[in-house]
UniProtKB/TrEMBL annotation:
<keyword id="KW-1003">Cell membrane</keyword>
<dbReference type="InterPro" id="IPR016181">
    <property type="entry name" value="Acyl_CoA_acyltransferase"/>
</dbReference>
<feature type="transmembrane region" description="Helical">
    <location>
        <begin position="190"/>
        <end position="211"/>
    </location>
</feature>
<feature type="transmembrane region" description="Helical">
    <location>
        <begin position="130"/>
        <end position="152"/>
    </location>
</feature>
<keyword id="KW-0472">Membrane</keyword>
<keyword id="KW-0812">Transmembrane</keyword>
<feature type="domain" description="Phosphatidylglycerol lysyltransferase C-terminal">
    <location>
        <begin position="231"/>
        <end position="523"/>
    </location>
</feature>
<feature type="transmembrane region" description="Helical">
    <location>
        <begin position="74"/>
        <end position="92"/>
    </location>
</feature>
<feature type="transmembrane region" description="Helical">
    <location>
        <begin position="42"/>
        <end position="67"/>
    </location>
</feature>
<feature type="transmembrane region" description="Helical">
    <location>
        <begin position="12"/>
        <end position="30"/>
    </location>
</feature>
<dbReference type="InterPro" id="IPR051211">
    <property type="entry name" value="PG_lysyltransferase"/>
</dbReference>
<dbReference type="GO" id="GO:0055091">
    <property type="term" value="P:phospholipid homeostasis"/>
</dbReference>
<dbReference type="GO" id="GO:0016755">
    <property type="term" value="F:aminoacyltransferase activity"/>
</dbReference>
<dbReference type="Pfam" id="PF09924">
    <property type="entry name" value="LPG_synthase_C"/>
</dbReference>
<protein>
    <submittedName>
        <fullName>DUF2156 domain-containing protein</fullName>
    </submittedName>
</protein>
<dbReference type="GO" id="GO:0005886">
    <property type="term" value="C:plasma membrane"/>
</dbReference>
<keyword id="KW-1133">Transmembrane helix</keyword>
Length: 559
């Protein structure tokens, strides 16, 4: 198979749209009176008029569904194939348009040959809803037209009884002109326009619902969460892997059941958190399987914050790679507060200790009073950030979640909690990491004291490194060889820093002398990048962009 052959369905979709437009234009603009007069000797007027109508309908449906064919929708393929049979016959009946009929037939044969490529499903409940809309709108428009023509007959300068009003309704909805409707009043024209709007609006809404991507409704089973936790215990090795077990994730397991991806569905974008989790030799198979699974559901897959480990596998499956930031990782064997490089940090820590601040490690399960203290600090932090809790690539303050974690806290000289961070495992990697990092409003010194205490804790327990988390957009696009996408990221990093504090976050973490490890966004096509980026932001906002919008407006006001 050639390299371009996988894209043949795009060509077919384009040709279907072009043919649909051609069917509409030729029905309206191309007439052969001699052929029409000859056909009148063999076919009744209703058939000739109906062939024109069906050419327009088939062309409209072909034009409308060409986009869905590009998405490989099997239901769109079935409808379009039927429309091509209809349009081929209609082109012959409305004036022996052999050229148009031949092009329709040729494209029909191409679609039949490409049938195996059209595998994307529609959402079953939406299909049923769409068909119900078709039936409901058809019945409603018929009754609306029936009583409209019956009650407004004087506005057509006619007298319609119910059977005649029914015939007029059917003829009008079939786009068949009748002499009785030749001289309507303004009210009658408004009524006919409203009848057409209801009919066309119902048709297109029904088609939209019928062709809607699959909407995930199934509840993740307890057994699936246990299976994912078992795989994480055996193979997890990243700062994000513990977050795949939080309840906002959906799971897709490999055919071998040895590995899984954890994702959130935002519209028709499946955003995966990090790389697949499982044995190394099973990961390439799972990436391919998940790609096919998404294609069959009319979803666009994306992998957020992946490591460099499997970039070649993603690229082999047709994905694009974009660096989106760097994680700061402190080498615990090298870190020290001594020396001129750590002078400022050392002075801050000593100042906090002189003021009576102290650090304490709280082991799970945490008590209710402790949770109330931490919740108070968390609420102060969220108020400072001018936004709500984030999700997906971060945990959130859920009492059940926090209660089960070790928590490092900083208390002031009165014993009040000023800052805290909960510790989460990385499983197979000998690296310490944390999730929530929150403090009260005021000086940032307690956070420095907190981080130094965490470093000492992890070092004492034999860890090799401490992961400080991601610095978004850091280290991206600031070099001449950067791609267009990377330069766009760099532009955002430079010009929106005042609102989002990207550089301040990096400066804070640089105090600890970390090494910087790249993290990437893996996405299917460059043209999809804006939609993928919006889906990632929405997933991190817990499914709603309003918290980001409110925070952005407030920070812009204060900037």
């Amino acid at each position: 198979m050639s390299n371009c052959s996988p894209r043949l369905h795009y060509l077919a979709a384009f040709l279907v749209g072009l043919t649909g437009l051609g069917n509409i234009l030729t029905a309206w603009l191309v007439h052969h009176p001699a052929r029409y007069i000859w056909l009148k000797h063999f076919l009744p007027w209703v058939v000739l008029r109906g062939s024109w109508l069906f050419s327009v309908i088939a062309g409209t449906v072909q034009l409308f569904l060409s986009w869905s064919l590009g998405r490989r929708k099997i239901l769109a393929w079935r409808i379009v194939v039927v429309m091509f049979f209809i349009s081929t016959a209609a082109n012959l009946l409305r004036g022996l348009h052999f050229g148009q009929a031949a092009s329709n037939l040729g494209l029909l044969l191409l679609l039949l040959a490409l049938k195996p490529r059209f595998t994307a499903a529609s959402d079953p409940p939406s299909v049923r809803h769409g068909l119900a809309v078709f039936a409901g709108v058809t019945l409603f428009t018929y009754l609306y037209g029936l009583f409209g023509f019956y009650l407004l007959d004087r506005h057509f300068h006619q007298h319609f009884n119910l059977p005649e009003a029914s015939a007029q309704t059917i003829a009008y909805l079939a786009w068949l002109a009748t002499p009785e409707l030749a001289h309507p009043t303004r009210l009658a024209r408004w009524f006919m326009d409203s009848l057409a709007i209801i009919q066309v609006g119902g048709l297109f809404y029904g088609l939209y619902m019928v062709l809607r991507p699959v909407v995930y409704r199934r509840t993740v089973l307890v057994s699936e969460r246990k299976k994912a936790a078992s795989i994480v215990e055996r193979y997890g090795h990243s700062s994000l892997v513990h977050l795949t077990l939080l309840p906002d994730k959906i799971y897709h397991f490999s055919l071998s059941q040895k590995s899984f991806v954890a994702y959130a569905l935002v519209g028709n974008v499946a955003v995966v958190l990090g790389d697949p989790v499982g044995p190394e030799d099973d990961i390439p198979h799972l990436i391919e399987e998940f790609t096919t699974f998404c294609a069959n559901n009319d979803w666009h897959p994306a992998f957020y914050q992946v490591l460099p480990d499997y970039l070649s596998v993603y690229q082999a499956n047709g994905y694009n790679i974009l660096k989106i930031g760097e994680e700061a990782v402190v080498d615990l064997h090298q870190f020290t507060l001594a020396g001129s490089e750590r002078k400022s940090l050392r002075q801050t820590v000593n100042r906090m200790l002189r003021k009576g601040f102290s650090t304490h490690l709280l082991m799970p399960p945490l008590g209710e009073e402790t949770l109330r203290e931490l919740k108070e600090v968390s609420d102060h932090w969220l108020k400072m950030q001018k936004g709500g809790e984030k999700r997906f690539s971060l945990g959130w303050f859920d009492p059940a979640y926090i209660r089960a974690c070790p928590v490092m806290v900083v208390r002031d000289d009165r014993g009040r909690v000023q800052a805290f961070a909960n510790i989460i495992p990385e499983y197979r990697r000998n690296e310490g990491t944390i999730d929530l990092m929150r403090r009260r409003e005021g000086e940032s010194g307690p956070m420095d004291l907190l981080f130094v205490a965490l470093i000492e804790h992890f070092r004492e327990h034999g860890f090799d490194s401490f992961n400080l988390g991601l610095c978004p957009l850091a280290g991206v696009g600031g070099h001449p060889a950067a791609s267009l996408q990377e330069r766009a990221v760099y532009f955002f990093y430079r010009h929106f820093n005042q609102l989002y504090g990207f550089k301040g976050l990096r400066r804070f973490k640089e105090k600890y002398g970390p090494r910087w490890e790249p993290r990437y966004l893996v996405y299917p096509h460059p043209l999809m990048l804006p939609r993928i980026a919006m889906a990632v932001v929405t997933a991190n906002a817990g499914g709603s962009l309003m918290s980001y919008v409110r925070a952005w407006r407030e920070k812009r006001r204060l900037a």
